[in-house]
Amino acid sequence: MNTKQLHQSNRAAWNEAARQYEQEVTQDIAFLRTGGQSFMEPERTFLADLNGWCRRAIHLQCAGGKETLSLWNAGAREVIGVDISDKMIACAQSKSAALNAPATWYCCDVLETPASLNDSADLVYTGRGSLNWIMDIDAWAQVVTRLLKPHGGRFYLFDGHPLDWVWDQEATEPKLDPDPAFGSYFSTSLNVSQGWHSDYIQDDLLPPLHQQARKYEHHWTLAQIITALAQAGLCLERLAEHPEQFTPQFSNWPSAVIERLPHTVSLLMRRL
Description:
alpha/beta, 9 strands, two-stranded antiparallel sheet, 7-stranded mixed beta sheet, 32% helix, 19% strand
């Protein structure tokens, strides 16, 4: 299968996962209407106040649009969300319509983000479990760069730390995952699976496991991510590693152990 086919299979899987997001539309609207911002503390530190400098923010792999509209609440004058799942985009559209927000949504493969958006973004934002769904990191980095305004457009990534892939999530202490697709930081194997963890998507919202779409995930090292972006024309401003998790992956580990390892990463870069 080529990159496009792998991404389309992931689109089908995310359309299944959207059933959970559809259940949360009303509460997300209420949260956003009061000015809510669904960012974690590291994101708040990096994004700060978008008022005054961010006219347009583009959120790649925006899912149901909650973080996209949080960028609007944080001061972006206009927000644009891009996602491959039509059902996720429908959730996002419902939210922005209810809020009368200055938001535009594009349903497409992130690698096919419309050229009409080129050179227009003050900020491109992505993360929260996004890069593992990308099969071509160099093509992705080219998209990020072409969307940003030349000479200063900012890119901010907040995502899971690549090191988290190596750990056995069922163990009671840090232990390498026995699956070679995960247990090596330098693995180049695709992880192929069906189904979603019940802590993320309720089982009763999904079809039987054997009927669910196959999901394809790729592990990218921190060096591969930064190098791809640098070769695409971005300049590194700041890199930070954080102990915070955006999803609880290691429920059997003592909290004192969890706090001693990086679980998320922030990457701030600018277009040259």
